């Protein structure tokens, strides 16, 4: 190939991630011409409804994948936490970049941490997982939906619409806004979304671009991502599921924690396990079965009932 075209959303964070991949490809393959193809997705356009009501995180990907299939772009760059666990037929993800900070960030202008929020304080998040964590920790808070790009969410906080908001540390740090993180919520108590902090690169099966982006793949990030995504795939996790998963790799050994909860924080189940990296996907599948067997089936039935109504 002489050129690679990168399909990307037009948000500030998405562009940062696409430009980061562009720089990595140029460094690795100086002969390549690498350009961006910015696009607006349905997920970016519909901001007046909770994400779970309009089709979930996959709404941020469909237009980008259509551009790949139509040969309008060669690769697409995503936040892995936004990528459905099962890719569409004909698509592949040959590269996962080294994981950034996986933690969630408590961001507030007036309060030092989650514990110091007064009863009834308004906290903004667009994530059912974060909502469930918040209410399990502080059932006295008022949780309101918060959609939009990172800068839009920060602006709403600064305008006084929320006492605090919850965002991903990785996104804030990538945009140079790490100073806005008031408290990094401890991963041991506040499990992140599967794939949080990891950038994935997608292309069509059989695309010659795969050989180039495979050169950027980080084996540690891949091991963790495969395990976390296998868990979500085994469960058939929908956008209305507050699902958490976090895998850590040490000397080719994988240690993983996972959890499933009700959106109101009233009930949750958690499991953990370990395996060799060669068995990453098997570990994710096994922990998914354990979640179901330890009370997860009741949660799944309740979540499905909520989505049907």
List the helices and strands and how they pair.
Blueprint: E1 3-9, H1 12-28, E2 33-39, H2 42-45, H3 51-54, H4 62-69, E3 75-79, E4 91-96, E5 104-107, E6 122-124, H5 128-137, E7 142-144, H6 150-158, E8 164-168, H7 169-174, E9 183-184, E10 199-204, H8 209-213, H9 219-235, E11 243-250, E12 253-261, E13 268-276, H10 280-308
Parallel strand pairs: 1-2, 1-3, 6-7, 6-8
Antiparallel strand pairs: 3-10, 4-10, 5-8, 5-9, 11-12, 12-13
Characterize the structure shown.
The chain has ten helices and 13 strands. By secondary structure, the chain is of the alpha/beta class. It has three domains: about 1-95 and about 200-215, Periplasmic binding protein-like II (D-Maltodextrin-Binding Protein, domain 2); about 105-185, Periplasmic binding protein-like II (D-Maltodextrin-Binding Protein, domain 2), CATH 3.40.190.10; about 220-309, Double Stranded RNA Binding Domain. The strands form three sheets. A five-stranded mixed sheet has the order 2-1-3-10-4, sandwiched between helices. Strands 7-6-8-5-9 form a five-stranded mixed sheet, sandwiched between helices. α1 links the parallel β1 and β2 (about 35-40). α9 (about 220-235) crosses α10 (about 280-309). The longest helix is centred in the last third of the chain and has 29 residues, at about 280-309.
